[in-house]
Structure to design on (640 residues):
């Protein structure tokens, strides 16, 4: 496994932005800092059989490895800029590397992020991407800013990725068109970077949904020291209708499914109308799903209007 | 494996520096950029059985995972600042994690670098650290600045780490004191950050020796478009004397051993006397080992004064 030729062949053609003084090929990259901007730093690992099914198309693996990191920058309201790739492979397979790098760079190009360094090693398949973003001084949106009275909103259709997984595992049936849609959500999550930057002017707190809505809203509630009550009817309005799947199963996917990479945020209720009215038609749906309250814990109005407790827990995927 | 409790227990007590606005615990860290400084970005992975023997003390693994990244910043003449840790483990073992984090933070504290984020996943043992450093605008030392006539210098005792490996594998004998010294070089390489920042005022090019002196000098020669001729006698002067090991074996370790993390640099010959005279007694030895010349390739004056070709190739360690 010749690290240098691998990197040169597949990863040195990356576009770099105007702040990259020196990219791949020295001991480190050199980046010109951006005046008036804070740096956002994140790092996420994907492991075969844990974070994606072992038979996943390498194009999708390359795409998703970057997507989950971009999603973290989106959740802060930032712009994604520069990343490193640490790739561990059982053996160098040019076909695999070509597909993987095509998926990676398709997304890198879409959001104008530059690969500036990395490391290729021999080992079981695993990908760690570290990504640096920028945001105007002091304007990053944290998890800790939610206040009682704030509205709780979510982008897109949380839960769909885990329905794709349930379909793969044979535990649900889906119509063919729905199955393709949800598998696309699982393999090709769309990082909500443009939306996150737009939401920066409105959100009091924000997070991306990677562990399921319950766990990730739980992170906001814990960091902000408050509680929330959601509405089942509003949650279902965020979904495509698929009559083959029972409502309880859909609600379960939303709360505990994970892997959605939609944005979950709180907005002062006086700002919500302006946000909803100015929300762009090119963005995915933005749905108000509940309210922040005083106290602690997560509750929901069910279909009968009864208040039920929602357990705040995540779900660990293992795709072996 | 509960990622969050693992991270909180072992990694949230990290010291953070004055530029860290928000450390571990949100979607990303938030860092205040430093005026007048360029950013240096690097990422390195260590895999068990590839980059260290499987029986290595977890304290040494934690230490070395950070050390190899610090060494990349040292090679640019920079100051190391903020890092993320992506840790993949077969199972969460509190004793292992405690030793690992102790090794990691001992070194982090020594060089005042802050852990600002990361990811803990279940998988075979592998550690990826991504590290950001800073350097005054435009002053980073690259591989590409060597010129014919420059002197070639090296810090410390390159080759010792690979002698430790040879000892482990039973292919050489070492006196007990030498064996302990070289095993320490293998397990606890000292990142030359302070030395690198000092050398920034003198070096025309610099690199850290991770793949062996031949391969890493080869990187400088290729990037700078020139050749070099070294002197065997001078190379041996950089070494501790260990009469049990044949000279050819020592020379081989220097050229192809790797894992040394010493600094290899070129200096305009008019600057060398000032550098050597001002070199601090607290620094490791600095040895002039040869000259940069026009052309291409790497040569050496052997013990008889004959010029011999040195193959420019690296060595991939596999410690299975």
């Amino acid at each position: 496994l010749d690290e240098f030729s691998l990197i040169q062949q597949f990863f040195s053609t990356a576009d770099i932005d105007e702040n990259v003084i020196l990219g791949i090929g020295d001991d480190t990259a050199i980046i010109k800092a951006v005046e008036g901007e804070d740096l956002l730093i994140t790092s996420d690992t994907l492991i075969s059989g844990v974070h994606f099914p072992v038979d996943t198309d390498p194009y999708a693996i390359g795409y998703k490895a970057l997507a989950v990191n971009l999603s973290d920058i989106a959740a802060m309201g930032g712009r994604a800029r520069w990343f490193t790739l640490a790739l561990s492979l059982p053996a160098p397979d040019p076909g695999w590397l070509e597909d993987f790098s095509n998926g990676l760079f398709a997304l890198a190009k879409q959001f104008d992020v530059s690969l500036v360094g990395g490391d290729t090693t021999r080992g079981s398949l695993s990908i760690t991407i570290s990504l640096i973003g920028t945001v105007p001084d002091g304007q990053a949106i944290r998890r800790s800013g939610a206040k009682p009275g704030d509205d709780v909103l979510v982008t897109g259709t949380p839960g769909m990725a885990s329905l794709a997984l349930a379909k793969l595992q044979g535990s649900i049936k889906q119509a063919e068109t729905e199955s393709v849609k949800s598998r696309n959500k699982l393999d090709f999550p769309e990082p909500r970077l443009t939306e996150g930057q737009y939401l920066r002017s409105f959100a009091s707190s924000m997070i991306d949904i990677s562990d399921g809505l319950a766990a990730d809203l739980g992170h906001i509630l814990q960091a902000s020291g408050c509680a929330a009550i959601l509405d089942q009817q509003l949650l279902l309005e965020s979904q495509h209708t698929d009559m083959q799947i029972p409502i309880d199963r859909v609600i379960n996917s939303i709360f505990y499914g994970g892997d959605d990479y939609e944005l979950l945020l709180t907005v002062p209720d006086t700002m919500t109308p302006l946000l909803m009215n100015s929300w762009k038609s090119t963005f995915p749906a933005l749905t108000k799903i509940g309210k922040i309250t005083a106290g602690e814990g997560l509750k929901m109005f069910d279909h009968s209007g009864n208040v039920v407790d929602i357990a705040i827990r995540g779900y660990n995927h293992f795709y072996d």
